[in-house]
Amino acid sequence: MPKLLRRHVLAGAAAWALPARATPAGMLSVGLVNYPPNIHAFDNTGSSQMAVKLSLFRGLLAYDRQGQLVPELAESWTPDGATAHLFRIRDGAKFHPGQPVLAEDVKYTIEQILKPGSTAYLKPEYGIVDRVEVLDARSLRIVLHQPSAPFPHLLASYHAPVLSAKLDDVAAPVGAGPFRFVAQERGVAIEVERFAGFYKPGRPRVQRLRFIAYGDENLRAAALEAGDVDIIEGVPWQNMAGMERNPRLKLDATDGPFMYLIFNTKAGPFTDPRLRQAVGFAIRRDEVVKSAMYGRGAPLEALPYPPGTAFADSVGGFWRYDPARSRRLLAEAGFPNGFRTKLLATSSPTLHQATAEVVQQHLAE
Question: Which H helix or E strand runs over 69?
Answer without folding.
Answer: strand 69-71
